[in-house]
Amino acid sequence: MRLDYLSIFPGYFDVLGISLLGKAAVNGLVDVYAHDLRDWTHDRHRTVDDTPCGGGAGMVMKPDPWGEAFDEIIGTEPDPSVHVVFPSPSGEPFTQSVAHDLSSVERIVFCCGRYEGIDHRVIDYARSMWTVHEVSLGDYVLNGGEVAALAITEAVVRLVPGFMGNPQSLAEESFSAGQDGLLEYPLFTRPVSWRGLDVPEVLMSGHHGRIAKWRRDESIRLTRERRPDLTDSDVSARH
Ligand SMILES: N#Cc1c(-c2ccc3ccn(Cc4ccccn4)c3c2)n[nH]c1N
After folding, report:
1. Angle CA(100)–CA(105)–CA(109) in degrees, nearest 5?
2. Which of 16, 35, 90, 217 is deepest in the core (most CB within 10 A)?
């Protein structure tokens, strides 16, 4: 998998050389390339923004640098196998399902906007050429797309076959398909007693059926308490 990042702050992506992602890069599972959008400007100030047409606050990212960067980094021929991700507060929700879909893709280009956003024609052009995902991390406002791109990267790459040492751990996580859309149950490890707090006895019983039931019940309880939006009537009935 090749990952490209276009940003006026390419240094954000130096962190991708650390930890598991660094190991994946070493193992050849992912190749990471960060690009400074300003390298495709031609004025003395390396300008990437301008005032919004129609007025309004803030600045908008000019289309020209993006187009020239696309030409050099991706190419000038349409190729739907290239997935271009635009993090945006007005994007579709980024979910585990989207992460799973992207984990089987060979090439992802992250376009990290700043200011009030990117000239919409850049997204329209990208849609005419590649497979585009305009996605939002959640209902809060960041200052740009870089942090979102890092979060999306981690969610996607950890699902790439061969990346996680123990793929079974993926199957038991919150939001993974195997959990019926339920939140993960509480986790415990040794010591059994810690500052007057004990591991639930059932988890030390060695009775796998009771342990499985306790975990399921806890997942249902937590999901109903914290994320009623994840429990539809059918799921509730089953639980
Ligand atoms: N994903 C995601 C995001 C973003 C996000 C993503 C890209 C950009 C490019 C510029 N800004 C600043 C900005 C502020 C105000 C209105 C528009 N834009 C971004 C914010 N905010 N919250 C999320 N869940």
Report:
1. 105
2. 16
